[in-house]
Amino acid sequence: MTHARRERAALCELLDRLGPGAPTLCEGWTTEDLAAHLALRERRLDAAPGIAIPLLSGYTRSVQERLASRHPYSELVDLVRQGPPVWSPYRLPGLDELIGTVELFIHHEDVRRAQPGWAPRTLPADLQDLLWKRLRSGARLLLRRSPVGVVLHRTSDGRTNGEKTAGRRAEPAVVVSGEPAELTLFAFGRGEHAEVSYSGDAAAVDRLRRTRFSM
After folding, report:
1. What residues does each domain of the chain span?
2. Rounded to an integer, what distance in angstroms lies between the CA atom of residue 176 and that of residue 187?
3. Alpha-carbon 53 to chain mean position
4. Would you list the DSSP string of 138-150?
5. 117: phi > 0 → left, psi -120 to 50 → alpha, else beta; which?
6. What is the β-pairing status of strands 164-168 and 149-154?
7. Domain 125-210 carries which CATH code?
8. pTM, 2 dp
9. What is the dihedral of CA 89, 8, 66, 56, to 10 degrees?
10. What's the DSSP call for residue 211?
11. For the segment 123-178, what is each residue's pLDDT rounded down to a tens digit?
């Protein structure tokens, strides 16, 4: 089973257990909203661009609201559990793993870490490696709005301790350290709930911690 499928299955199990109305880390969204978002992403390709393009976000929001109103919560979760339909490009071999792993991981943590008593999971080493690979290729884009330089420092184990990648080249630079999973959450705007540490000029660290990044 791929990492994307494992994260999808675990997320859906958690959504089933919590039910609709439970909080998530996505501002203003409950578990029902998040399930509708994931169903839209894979089944309404006409509305999916508005997830990332502000100009189209109004249409995306209206489609998501209609999905939530037309489907009971349990059906929304089942749509997510089923994965992309047969006609979706996400069903192409390897594409769900390439594109879906990071998003499903993040949204799984959006639900987990919004609940009381959460604790970080122990993730497989190859999943940490995959997340780090994605960060190395995407960190500059994700952190382009940072008001200061950013260096991501992987601290997962002795084999990789000290490995770094540039998020944004500028001075002063702040080094953000943590495991790849935690750095991924930081880079996708979940810094307040990520177990990372910061080092560098105190004012620069403060500016970075107050900056909100998004997907």
Report:
1. 3-112, 125-210
2. 10
3. 17
4. HHHHHTTT-SSEE
5. left
6. antiparallel
7. 3.30.1050.20
8. 0.91
9. -50
10. -
11. 999 999 999 999 999 999 999 999 999 999 999 654 445 688 888 888 899 999 99
